[in-house]
Design goal:
Length: 433
């Protein structure tokens, strides 16, 4: 017998519209597959008039998200409003009523996950957040269930669709940064405040969620060394290509001697590596495990229908738990480590791309080599484009591995030298070894 579950949707925007469209398109298929009918009972949004490209019975609409949460016909709450305070309040309200919550709000989970997962546990209910990382890729479920018997050694991910879209379009079509950002916004990929995307914060939110799940303790946001792609100069994309690399916005999370290194930055990766072929809005994560080895997860990382697919998979999970009377069958987050430790970024061993602006005259390379050598940094290759003698010329250096702290100190010293014409540009290199 088909069982009907009531849904309360909070936020009828890009992803909310996709959820309504997905339900309308595939409700019968979902019912056939699961034996459950998912019925929208309330939809909360501030603006009822904007066209979402999908028809909705206006009798379902309210402007008061709390009214939707409290509606007795609502069994599962779907939070797709985004933002912090209002979303935190309605999620806490739903959990306090024992209602499971499905959310795509990575910012909220990264900042307030500890409080919200604790609240869910105390009220015997659950939070589902498949759409919070990797858009439509079934990534959270893979970590939480498919890989549950594995120790996670390393995760490397392209986790922001907007950044990957911008980098791809800048490289392939030689378009300026601002124009491709506007394209990403129009496509519904970017956050309401796109600086979250381009300054790396959104990738850091997602990295925090993945690291917390993988290592069993709440990883704080301020432990992520974060750099964004704002102001990225296309000459670096071109020099990187000349040297056999592509620039990708990467999150790197590693377990080193039982402590977690976590960093986010535009990073050079070898052009022949599978991650270099991830283009446009697509995301990919390589999860390196002690049992299965490398697992690659790939798919659309942002956008209406792909994200809605992940949301609806969570809704089905929550509905199954209600029907089987087992709301915490697979808890959203299990804190299994009390002694979790974060490694400071200065402890990282990295390889780098350095673009220096150097006066083109005898002896200058020697001075730079001396500074790098003094900090234990060894040069692997070097590229200089020809300019008129006596001017500042761009010089690109690829290094061997050295300490992150050594790079920071060496660059400070180099940038104070009189032969240097502009601040040194630095990107880390990831070889996936
Ligand atoms: P949108 O801005 O398109 O949609 C949010 C909707 O919620 C808007 O219609 C907004 O109304 C409404 N809203 C905001 N505050 C309230 C409130 N207090 N009560 C009722 N409605 C409210 O955002 P997205 O759909 O793009 O994103 C939603 C969430 O999903 C965010 O957390 C985002 O980070 C996440 N996400 C988004 C992805 C994407 O590709 N877009 C992918 C993965 C996750 P109004 O516009 O009138 O203010
Ligand atoms: N703004 C985000 C991105 C949405 O571009 O990846 C998906 O989380």
């Amino acid at each position: 017998m088909t069982k009907e579950l009531g849904l309360g949707l909070l936020g009828f925007g890009t992803v909310g519209g996709g959820v309504v469209a997905g339900l309308q398109k595939n409700a019968v298929l979902i019912a056939q597959r699961t034996g459950m009918r998912l019925a929208l009972r309330k939809v909360a949004d501030l603006d009822w008039d904007r066209d979402r490209g999908v028809a909705l019975d206006r009798a379902l609409l309210t402007k008061d998200a709390m009214e939707a949460v409290a509606d007795p016909g609502v069994d599962i709450v779907i939070e797709l409003m985004g933002g912090m305070d209002a979303a935190r309040k309605v999620i806490a309200g739903a959990l306090s009523l024992g209602k499971p919550v499905v959310t795509a709000n990575k910012a909220l989970l990264a900042e307030h996950g500890e409080e919200l997962f604790g609240l869910a546990a105390r009220h015997g209910t659950n939070i589902f957040f498949e759409a919070s990382v990797g858009g439509g890729i079934p990534l959270i479920r893979s970590l939480r269930e498919g890989l549950v018997s594995n120790r996670i050694l390393r995760l490397c991910g392209i986790l922001n669709g907007t950044c990957n879209y911008i980098l791809t379009r800048m490289e392939q079509k030689h378009l300026p940064f601002d124009r491709v950002l506007r394209e990403a916004q129009a496509a519904g990929y970017a956050e309401a405040d796109p600086s979250l995307d381009i300054d790396g914060t959104d990738t850091a939110h997602k990295a925090v969620i993945l690291a917390s799940l993988a290592y069993g303790f709440h990883v704080p946001m301020d432990s992520v060394a974060t750099e964004g792609i704002r102001g990225l100069n296309k000459v670096d994309i071109e020099y990187a290509a000349d040297l056999g690399y592509r620039i990708k916005m990467l999150a790197i999370i590693k377990d080193i001697d039982n402590s977690v290194e976590i960093r986010v930055s535009p990073t050079l990766i070898p052009v022949h590596h599978v991650m270099a072929s991830v283009q446009g809005v697509f995301n990919a994560v390589i999860i390196n495990c002690d049992g299965v080895g490398d697992v690659l997860c790939y798919g659309r990382g942002a956008g209406r229908d792909s994200t809605a697919s992940a949301v609806l998979s969570d809704v089905v999970d929550a509905a199954r738990d209600i029907v089987s009377n087992s709301k915490r069958r697979a808890p959203g987050f299990v804190p299994f480590r009390q002694d979790g430790r974060i490694r400071g970024i200065s402890e990282a061993r990295v390889r780098c791309y350095l673009r220096l602006s150097l006066l083109d005259k005898p002896g200058v390379f020697g001075q730079i080599g001396t500074v790098l050598g003094k900090h234990g940094i060894s040069i692997a290759s070097l590229l200089q484009k020809e300019t008129a003698t006596g001017h500042h010329a761009p010089v690109v250096i690829i290094t061997h591995h050295a300490g992150e702290g050594a790079f920071q100190a060496a660059i400070r010293e180099i940038d104070s030298m009189s032969v240097v014409g502009a601040p040194t540009v630095r990107f880390r290199i990831e070889d996936f070894e």
